[in-house]
Amino acid sequence: MYDFLPSDHKALSTDKSLQQFLTKDGALYMVLNRPEVYNAFNGALIENILEALEEAAENDSVRLLILTGSGKNFCAGGDINYMRSLGTNSFEENKEDALQMAYLMQALNEFPKPTIARVNGAAYGGGVGLLCCCDMAFGTENTKVCLSEVKIGMVPATIGPYILKAIGVRNAHRLMLTAEVMQGQEAVNQQLLTGLFKEEEFDLQIQSIAKKISQNAPEALNIIKALLLNLAYQPINDGVVEYTADVIANVRASEEGKEGLASFLEKRKPKF
User: Fold this and answer.
1) Per-domain residue ranges for the chain?
2) What is the model's pLDDT at position 91?
3) Residue 81: per-residue pLDDT
4) Which of 27, 65, 147, 186 could form a disulfide with 23 if both were Cys (CB 3.0 to 4.6 A apart)?
5) Secondary element (H or E) of residue 182
6) Would you tell me how many other CB atoms lie within 10 Å of the CB of residue 246?
7) How far is CA 178 from CA 35, 36, 144, 153, in A?
8) What does the alpha-carbon distance between residue 271 and residue 173 come to, in Å, rounded to a whole number?
9) Cα–Cα distance between 42 and 22 in angstroms, integer?
10) Which element (helix H / strand E) includes 14?
11) Assigned superfamily of 10-214
12) Distance (Å, whole) CA 187 – CA 121
């Protein structure tokens, strides 16, 4: 169906607006599937992603998540027809809608397993929020990223915390206030993308990174996710020292930790 999928994938869901495919290594490809509107958000897509994230978090077969878009683009932000309807809503209705987007960003940011954004083509507005909520984001020289809200009198509010987390205050000021398009290496320089790959190698490189992740201890991966989320922007104080000591003490006492250490000492592959 999609040429970027590994050959060993199986379809989990072929919902019209969001499709999911799982590989033997446990990589879940979550594909935004509204290419006719550049995979832009509407209420149904937001709801579908939230539901899919909740299910994937509980599915032990899923080791990591790869988020991408069908067609030539990643995500163009809000669907114009969807945005048009919001213009006639009351404050209460707009607040409820904005909370759904905020919940989506929170759910992706706090997803307990590793996440990769495969940023094909353009990511605008809310699409930038998605890639900033992922642990890693990769693109090509053709990838374009833009926080375009200010051009139409809007602001990147619900995605703002995750933009700041990913790129820092100084870069956020520039990108939010200018609405400049950052392409390829410029997007890497602004910390919007983790790295770039050549177009012809893009998907093989994504698959290689996914395989490296899937070969690691699953519980340790999840604990690292929680550890980094809890430590981000925290001052290094006695509470943090105590917390980190508790984390490693619990890991060492776990069955996975014991197996990992035993395999290292016995010079064999661990059985995770």
Assistant:
1) 10-214, 218-265
2) 87
3) 78
4) 27
5) strand 182-183
6) 10
7) 27, 27, 15, 12
8) 47
9) 25
10) strand 10-14
11) 2-enoyl-CoA Hydratase; Chain A, domain 1 (3.90.226.10)
12) 12
Buried b (16+ CB within 10 A) or exposed e, 218-240: bebbbbbbebeeeeeeeeeeeee
Q: If you search the block for the tokens 């999840």, which residue do you land on?
A: 222
Per DSSP, 5 falls in state S
Phi, psi of 222 (to 5 degrees): -65, -40
E strands present in 17-150: 18-22, 27-32, 64-69, 115-118, 122-124, 136-139, 144-146
Is there a contact between 73 and 33 (Cβ–Cβ < 8 Å)?
A: no
Q: What are phi and psi of 12, to 5 degrees?
A: -100, -35
* Per-residue burial over 189-198, b = 16 or more CB atoms within 10 Å of its CB, e = otherwise: ebebbbebbe
Q: In one letter, which amino acid is 188? A: V
Q: CA 190 to CA 138: how far, in whole Å?
A: 13
Q: What type of residue is 123?
A: A
Structure tokens at 64: 């990591």
* Joined tokens for residue 259: 């197996």
